[in-house]
Design a protein that fits this description.
Length: 204
Amino acid sequence: MTPSLAAQAYLLAGDPDKGRIRRRGRAALLVRAAAVTDLLLRGRLTVAGGRVSATGRGPTGDLLLDDLLADLADEGPTRWRRLLRRDSADTLRSLELQLAAAGILRPHVTPVLRRKVLHLADRSPAVDARATVDRALRAPLSEVDTRAAVLTALAAAAEVGFTRRSSRRHAERLAELDGVAGSAAAELRGLLRARRAAIMAGGS
């Protein structure tokens, strides 16, 4: 299985050394943003007047994207903020089922509280996703494709695979990647940053 943009985004939350998925709550919004952007890149969504609309319901070649596209077609023109937050937990669970079926994730029951958590059964896709981000941050900008730019910009905004310090360190490069990723990714990146700030403010 070649991981989709949403799957790569999710796998950035994986710890290849320990095999654990970390910051799953942040990953949910990131996955949703990556899936929406993937549909935009495929020309399956249009943007007009600050609202996003589906252009049809035909298959995309990815079951997660097919389901999301059908939902957006039913919803009609939707504002960015609602588009990002609506059903993000369902999108995350659908992706996790897809990754488990592909043998990338496996369920694990914790010995004390008997909680069911997900671990990486195959750690190489998580390593590859991290390598994609590293190349996007370090390679000449002309060698960075749109999908890698989108993945990196969104992940930094959600602080998945990034720390606040590393985001600051790469701030100039991330601004350049916004230009490669396009206006839609920049819009979603702004929403992810605002959501992260709101969560931090609530926690404090």
